[in-house]
Amino acid sequence: MRNTRTVLLAVVVILLSATPCGIARAQSNSKEIMALPPAELIAILQKADAGVFEKAKAFQRLATIGAKDAVPALVPLLSDEKLNVYARNALEAIPDPAVDEALRAATKQLLGRQLVGVIDSIGQRRDKQAVGLLQSLMGDQDAAVASAAAGALGRIGTEDAAAALKEWLGKESAVKSQVADASLACAEGLAAAGQKASALSLYEVVGQGDLPRHLQLAALAGRFHVLQGEAKELLLSQLKAEDAGVLKVALAAARYLPGAEITAALTEALDQLPPQRQALVLLALGDRTERVALARVMTAARSESPEVRVAAVAVLSKLGDAAALPILLEAALDSGPAAPTAIEGLKNLKGDSVDEAVVAKLGEVSGSAKIVFLDIAAARRIKAATVLARQCATASDEPLRLAALAALGQLVELGDLDLLLSRAFAAADTPERKAAQQALETAALRMADREATSAKFASVLGKQAVENKVFLLDLLGKLAGPTALETVAAHTRSDDDALKDAATRVLGDWPNPEAADTVLAVARTEKTNKYQIRALRGYIRIARQLQFPDDKRLAMFQAAMEVAKRTDEKRLALDILTRIPSVETLQLTVSYLGVPELKEAAGEAAVAIAEKVITANAPAVAEAMGKVLAADAGGRRTARAQQLLDRAKANPT
Hints:
The chain is mainly α. Among the domains are: about 110 residues, Leucine-rich Repeat Variant; about 100 residues; about 70 residues, no CATH class. It has 40 helices and no strands. α17 packs antiparallel against α18. The longest helix has 17 residues.
């Protein structure tokens, strides 16, 4: 895959630098070359007058179908400054030992970049017979050559390669870090091949060497990956390390190393660690797939250390069951640092017994604690807490009333909306009124029967003050069903300017396509310029952004153009056609080039449509782009139209 991508990239670069006519010829030659047999492809490589593009395509094809007989023709090109990459990629793909022999021999003849490339190819082919050669090349004075040799040994990944890398890890050299990096790759390959002892040995050498810290940490991580469930002793020792990087690697391993034995060892180690480390290990235990002993975690939740308590509560919140409930309830009522974590845990802990316990606590506690449990009950949607929330909504304490209203937004059903409605439409503009309105929005949008909810709001709308009516119209716009649409549309005909303004605004932002005909009707009949424009723009937005069959969208464009009185809306409407690209809409767009004030918008839309239909409709695109150029639509449109015209002429079918 790497070889194919490299060759294709080179070919693309050649194509991009060519003229349109040159591209057309190259595409034609490409198809012919890619159909040739190996012998004729080799002949192209040997022709002195063959172009770089032809040779590149021949290399590309040989990478797919080449065999041993292509090797003699490819090897001489390894020294070619321009073609060596193509030659190597073709050779790498040929599954014959002759390639390996040729690449090894080529290292004796090449220098610099060409030599580095051949060494890389040897590594890509994982030539086990090249280990000795690569080991000698690691002593080359050219650091790039030495580094490439180390990398190749890393990819070969045999025990011999590991031995060669180990030897060089013990020496001082300019490429020691590259050798260590290659050693990590080699160890990974050995582990994948089941040679765990050899992989561990190599990881240990890298981890103990005088090397950059990130390589040592990678070696430690490699040891954990190889050992897996056998890493208990290594894990326990590294969890006590003073080095922050080592600790981070160990904690990561504590999360993924498999086995109940590892889980048990981590749990037992808690008592041997200082509080900060205990907290980190507890969190790691909470992320393991094996079940942690919750009894030990519950003990930690009562630790004198705040860090340990917070971590233990976090684990209980994530993994706990009914047995953890008393601790979480206690922590939630505490003012300590574990309280927020416990509260979140209670919101998500599974089980009917949790709901019962939360409702019981809600009835027992007072003050700020009652606010906490109202929040928990609301998050859990505990219906049994609704009565208590109603009682709290009439409390003398304002923060408690506000919390109760917020909870009712999550708890009340359709038949219980009257309480929120009465508070939301109170005469005074108070925090309670705002909280009730927010709760009402929450309640309305979670109701299963949105039509019934809309009907409820519509039934009370006429009795409200204008400000409250505006609020309800906004809410109906969010519900967006047939009843809501009918109610909002009716208020576009209101004599009250504030209601008309709100209704046309909500209608213009309607979130589903069902409003299209209603919005168009308002745009057709509205006399006030401001509201007529708003409705028309809402209609155009719906046509552009929402889903419609092509014929419906085209009819919507025609309707918008018919209703539009201003140039701005006509320009917006032209963009609708770009959503239904075809020869017909291209021609329709071009027909507006003759309207001076629409010329630029028509040119923009025509180019956008042409880009989508040119492959199957080159003649029509050529004709349309000619008209765009003749109209001089200006800006980038002219350049894009010229490019499309050239493409269409180069590929007329």
